[in-house]
Amino acid sequence: MTQDTAADRAATLGLILDGGRARRMGGADKGLITLAGRPMIAHAIDRLRPQVARLAISANGDPQRFERFGLPVVADDPPNHAGPLAGVLAALEFCARAAPKLAYVASLPGDTPFAPEDYVVRLHAARRAANAAIAVAVSGPRTHHTAALWPVAIAADLRRALVEEGLSKVASFAVRYRVATAEWSVDPLDPFSNINTPVDLACAEAALAAASGRDGPS
Question: What is the mean pLDDT of residues 130-138?
Answer without folding.
Answer: 98
